[in-house]
Design goal:
The complex is a heterodimer of chains A (about 800) and B (about 290).
Chain A lengths: L28 H6 L14 E7 L5 E7 L1 H5 L3 E6 H7 L19 E2 L5 E7 L2 H8 L3 E6 L6 H5 L14 E9 L2 H6 L3 E9 L11 E7 L4 E6 L4 H12 L6 E5 L12 H13 L5 E4 L2 H7 L7 E9 L5 E13 L8 H4 L13 E10 L13 H19 L3 H8 L8 E2 L5 E2 L4 H12 L1 H13 L3 E13 L18 E7 L5 E5 L8 H13 L6 E5 L16 H27 L7 E4 L2 E4 L6 E3 H10 L13 E6 L18 E13 L6 E11 L6 H21 L30 E4 L22 H13 L8 E2 L3 H12 L2
Parallel strand pairs in A: 1-12, 8-29, 10-11, 14-15, 20-21, 27-28
Antiparallel strand pairs in A: 1-5, 2-4, 2-6, 3-5, 7-15, 8-13, 9-10, 9-12, 13-14, 16-17, 18-26, 19-20, 19-25, 22-23, 23-24, 26-27
Helix pairs in contact in A: 7-8, 11-19, 13-14, 15-16, 18-19
Chain B lengths: L6 E3 L4 H13 L4 E4 L5 H6 L7 E4 L9 E4 L2 E5 L4 H6 L1 H6 L1 H8 L4 H6 L2 H7 L5 H9 L2 E6 L2 E6 H4 E3 L2 E2 L6 E8 L6 E7 L9 E10 L2 E10 L6 E2 L1 H7 L6 H14 L11 H22 L2
Parallel strand pairs in B: 1-3, 2-3
Antiparallel strand pairs in B: 4-5, 5-10, 6-7, 6-10, 8-9, 11-12, 12-13, 13-14
Helix pairs in contact in B: 10-11, 11-12
Classes of the chains: A alpha+beta (about 800), B alpha+beta (about 290).
Amino acid sequence: MAIKIPTLPEQLPTTQPRFVGKEIKRVEDPGLVAGTAAFIDNLSLPGMLHCAILRSPHPHARVVKVDVRAAEALPGVFAVLTGEDVRRWANPAYTAPEGWGGYCIAVDKVRFVGEPVAAVAAVSRYVAEDALELIEVEYDVLKPVPTPAVAMAADAPILFEERGGNVIQSRVYNWGDVDRVFAEADHVVGNTFRWNRVGANPTETFGCICQWDTVDNALTCYGSYGTPRFWAMGRAMALNLPTNKVKVIPQPQGGAFGGKGGPRGTDIAALLSRKAGGRPVKYIEDRMEYLLAGFGQSWDRHYDAALAVKADGTVTGFRVRLIDDQGAGAEGWGTISVAKPLAAFTGSYRIEAARYDTVLVATNRAPTGPYRGYGPPPHFLVLESLMDMAARKLDMDPAELRRRNYIRPDQFPYTIPSGNEYDSGNYEAVLDKVLAMSDYRGLRESQARGRADGRLIGIGVVSTVEPGVFDWNAYATVGVQGIGVPEGAKVAFDMLGNLTVVVGFNLQGQGQFTVAAQVAADYWGLDVCAVKVASASTDIAPPSFGQGGSRLGVAITGAVLGACEKLKAVFCQVVAHLMQTTPEQVELMDGRLRLKANPQVGMSVAEVAGTMLGRSDLLPPGMEPSPEATFVWTAEGRTMPDDQGRCRSYLTGANATHVVMVEIDRDTGRTDILKYFIVDDCGTRLNLANVEGQLQGALAQGVGAALYEEYVYNDEGQPLVTTFVDYLIPTIHEVPMATKDFIITPSPVAPLGAKGCGEGAIHTTPAAVLCAINDALAPLGVEITETPASPHRLWKVLRQVAER
Amino acid sequence: MKPASFDYHAPPTLAEAVELMARLHEEGVDAKILAGGQSLMPMLAMRVARPEVLVDLGKIKSLDYIREESGAIAIGAMTSKRAAEASALIERQQPLFHAATKLVGHRQIRNRGSVGGSFAHADPASEYPAVALVLDIVFKAVGPEGERTIPAGDFFVTYMTTSLESTEVLTEVRLPVLPAGTGWAIQEFARRNGDLALAGVATTLKLAAGVCADVRLAAFGVNATAVRLTGAEEFLRGKRPDRAVLAQAAAMAANDLDEPMSCVHASADYRRHLIRVLAERCLLEAAARAI
């Protein structure tokens, strides 16, 4: 039976939705505010041990000898894990492409500073750290590979010797006749860009408690896990266990932003538990470990890119050469961030042809991992910076150049050259709204007055598309298999008519429990607080992926609605039987199953559920007495990639235009954000407060990438940024509260018309801020094409002017 | 990130603390004084500092006071920075010290962090040592031989090192009251609000008959300790504090600096440049305040 899922809120079985589309308070917040939500470090199990990990001080070295005898002899130490144990019991990390990962503890060599070389389980973390000091490791230090340039040199030291070189993948994608459009262009604007390493920094670092059942040979992991099933599968592969013998219990998490690594931490804690005879082992990654080796580093990129532009401002071609420093292999899944831009390669524009020339390189920096946006934010910084360069070249207003090239509303669904299909949008309406809201003309006038006074004031107007609701096929080009990302939910009434929604993930901060509760409440005419949302462990949860890829809000809406539709069909049968009519004559409206012909006659949802569980004699013959239904949702119509990587991948395309005004202090190089405006369109907004929270938070991370955050390495591959003293996350003082508004163009293909919006402003803000800075610098004839645009970097740029 | 094991003492009186420090010293025990813990606790957690014994001064209530005493403001070493920030007396009588206090970290840090602790820790990027040099702050310390006073010029030795003996407890910080009509300013450059300064300048400026009679200028965040910029101070003596003169003095101050330190956020050159910019801005601000 095909399940039809409502594509607009008006299609819900209610006269007027009370919760969907409203700014309701989040159901998960009371526990978070009161401190009763159980994060992993709040948990303690009987007999639990604590893990500490000894990490490599060298970026590249052979591990000659590890002597743990003194550590094992320390009172309070129960187990010490070494590369020898791991070689016997575990497998190297599975990676895409395959073969670019190490064991959870180095067995032969270390490839980055912070790579685990041994681990201890002891009665306390204090004793475990004392024991680490007693472990003697003999290293044979190798020549480091600090940069892609060194990595690709003919005589380069090789990280993974069995691979024969340091290039993980080198691939050129051609979409359309790129050479022709560049040859026929009136202008070609090009530049190089350097996006330095940044990354996710959740409030809570990674943590877990692992317990090895030595009788059943099974593993249970409690932890700060965002995608529990994926973790369970990965642990099974790494630790040689059947997947149904790995149980992952996700705890509420203090954020993730994609960056919460921890495969190594989990595997190490699991093997320590195995070695300690099955005692539970807790591992809480500390902030220095996280910053050093927590897979919280992403997007270390060297770009060389160009646009082909006609004299009238029509952009016809976009070519990008990207050398991406993946760090020490692909174990953090950083490769995906190179593939994902295919889902929105040409941004908001009708660009006829494009080329993407990619080289993914292994170096002795920490392996890169996912970060909110997973790749497009730097890509859009390049595209949007080139759009501004083109506008300057043509002496056009940057907003007008964008307007001229937007995909028009009547062109949707629109297939971009790199293959993805955008579902809907009205980019010009978004632009008009943000220009009006910001009084764009007034901003330009005030900029002109400031310039006359010698002030460096700049304005950025930047438009981007946020690919929403990911599919694995988007990452096929780097070796990820499969199509479809199933997300399930069980909707279950009890005998008294109370409703529970069971999901396969736990809280991470985005508010998906609230979304699930809102949707179910409006569907069944209940109060949102009456809906219980429960998180199930992987052994009993429906198929689920969890958070990631700007997807879960849409996916869980689809799953809950699908389950509701299934259950409604059953309830209609029950009521039809009792009322001696056919199910087609019964409808659900505002919490009642009623006769279409005579709406006064009907039963409440609670009465139907109670009848099913308590009066089986009244049910249709042979009916299962179960007022429950499970539905597993995935986006339809996803396709296999062709030889150029083209496929329908991400389901939805939200879009936004930001207008930002900055001022640069000519003496110090410091940038202040004076004004910030956002108008976006993510289709139906399921919860206004949730969406605004995502936008404002992503704006903060965008400001961080544009102005503050950077993982710095020296020429020897040593990380120089290992604490929050140096990794500068902007605070409330540095992040402007943007003035925001929106339009709604519902997605025709997504549940309730909602588009993925969880990554939000991080796609747009770095580009917007950098474009504003370069707009400020333009009269001086200098520019900056490296992030973050720190005061020191801008001072150096400004000094070029002084020295002329 | 857990400290190595240590013994912990929290003597209730200054006399007992001093006696304890002397005894530990005699026994060859490596002991460290814990004040507000805002710098020491992270250093313990990272095992950068690993004393055998911590002597916590937190229970000694007699070291928590702010009072006016014969033309000076006396601050007990264990007084919190937040208390100094909230003190109307300090704000009125010693506005430079008050302004410097507000630049230290964030409110949470100022709640816990002590006034004395910052001076004893002597972080070159902190504001207080530069202010101490500009104002001629005097420190009181008590050791086995009794109490002694140490002028600011003799207090700071090098990077995170003061002239306090390992058996001495810093007890009081004495600020002179700022004479009426004296101009003052403190400015710093940090990446974010509340960060340690990459460079900073503090100054006082006294005028007599429209010309500079006495200028004090010190830089922080650039060398191993805060430094007086005496060349610029001398240059300004007897000159009218107009924009060009102050700019010249600032350039002189920056040129006179020993090679500044360098980090991921700022090279030595950039720091030197920032001192010039900040010195000029500070001198202008101070001159505008001076009567």
